[in-house]
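To make this tangible, this section ends with a sequence with its structure tokens:
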Amino acid sequence: MPNNKDFSNALVDICVASKPVLSFMDGIVGMEGAGPSAGDPREVGVVIASTSPYHLDVVATSIIGLEPTKVPTVQRCVERGLCKGNFDDIDLKGDKIEKFILNDFVIPEIRSLDLLDGKIPKFLRDILNGFLQPKPVFIHEKCVGCRDCINSCPPQVIEMVENKPIVNLDECIRCFCCQELCPVEAIDIHRPLLMKLLSRL
């Protein structure tokens, strides 16, 4: 599911079907930046619990200074009426949330973006999105040949050539599991300048 909306809808579907009774989030030490292998640990000092995983996410994103409705799964929950995406339907207990809010938390960059959806014909949108899409870039000088990227690639589009990974970008679904799981941070995500500018709009 390379489409952001489809994938986030699937995650919400799973949550709705499983009907969790109580959800916890361990935020004692979080990770900012491009996790989980390339991020940086950050002390937050909070544990969040809720009977609603949807409202839990709203509180958690607010703590790290991220607007909840910018998170695709929260967007889907708001669309379905599972939460409002703000604190209007949340009753907080325990310590004051202001004690934990981190306005300088480093948020990962947006990894996929379809700004043109519904604005131009699909065939033209697909062509333009090809120029806007980010892509994994393998830093062979840092690579140790462990093959973790190959083993973690859902569409299996990475192969080893002379013990170095090569990716077929035409078949890459931009999940970036390879980058997230690389133990030596030998994979970077290249984002076109135009995409970086548009993602800030």
User: Anything to note?
Assistant: The radius of gyration is 19 Å. The chain has a mean pLDDT of 86. The first strand starts at residue 23 and ends at 32. Residues 4-99 form one domain.
